[in-house]
Write a structure and sequence with these properties.
alpha/beta, about 250 residues, two-stranded antiparallel ribbon, globular, about 35% helix, 9 strands, seven-stranded mixed beta sheet
């Protein structure tokens, strides 16, 4: 019988965002954004553990305090603010999981079914890297999910040289797909024009509206439910349509 492969999700999060300081602590329908994201990740069937990887900066004590004792599957780790690759690696070194998930801490609408889809495809694929944003984006921005092995992470940790690459962890893979066995997951319908990530005041207004509309009615609402809300209220897309994406590679 095949041994189940361990899947650890790392969520890099910090309070020092330049555009929207403290964004991960901002309430969405009364609960901090980071906890909204963790709640949704806990609904994924494939994830064994969630590690919130924050920095050693004093201001990020608030993140550690927030997730402490929140759930048995959730813990915090601390590391370099700038070298996020090292922060990832050190957070996982004790565990060396079979599968590493990278889901950034500004994605409170992350869909657990999409996460499971990416993980299961990675397990079938027997390659180096599977994502739903590689070369072609078809999912809303904010549902970004990447899966790779701890061995790949260790290689990146040893080999990456530039500050930009070390900050974005998987950027080297995305820029050099010829060096890795990669696969992109596409949604049947292109929803890439939707922006559901938390980076600007307009993003916050939109996300808070979505959670206030949907959370109480269905705590396990999914991407399709948000899409249906937009179909009923098309004016919602205007709330953050002028926000410029900070990192064009993502």
């Amino acid at each position: 019988m095949n041994k189940k492969r361990t899947v650890y999700c790392v969520v890099p999060a910090r309070t020092g965002s330049s555009r929207l300081p403290g964004k991960v602590l901002k309430p969405l329908a009364g609960k901090p954004s980071l906890l909204r994201q963790i709640d949704r990740l806990l609904q994924a069937k494939t994830i064994d553990k969630i590690i919130v990887a924050t920095t050693t900066e004093k201001r990020d004590d608030a993140i550690v305090d927030l997730v402490k004792d929140y759930h048995p599957k959730v813990s915090a780790a601390r590391g370099s603010e700038i070298d996020v690759t090292d922060r990832f690696y050190q957070a996982l070194l004790e565990y060396k999981p079979d599968v590493v998930l990278r889901i950034t801490g500004d994605c409170p609408l992350i869909d657990p079914e999409v996460v499971d889809l990416v993980v299961n495809e990675y397990l079938r694929f027997n390659g180096d890297y599977v994502a739903n944003t590689l070369k072609e984006r078809t999912y809303p921005r904010g549902l970004d999910t990447e899966a790779f092995s701890f061995e790949i992470l260790e290689k990146l940790w040893k080999d990456l040289k530039t500050e930009e690459e070390r900050e974005h962890v998987t950027l080297f893979i995305r820029r050099n797909t010829d060096l890795f066995k990669c696969k992109n997951i596409k949604n049947p319908v292109d929803y890439s024009f939707h922006r559901w990530t938390l980076d600007e005041p307009g993003d916050y207004t939109l996300l808070n509206t979505i959670f206030e509309e949907l959370q109480d009615k269905n705590p396990q609402f999914r991407m399709k439910d948000v899409i249906e809300l937009f179909e009923k209220r098309p004016e919602l897309i205007k709330i953050n349509q002028d926000v410029e994406q900070k990192n064009p590679h993502y």
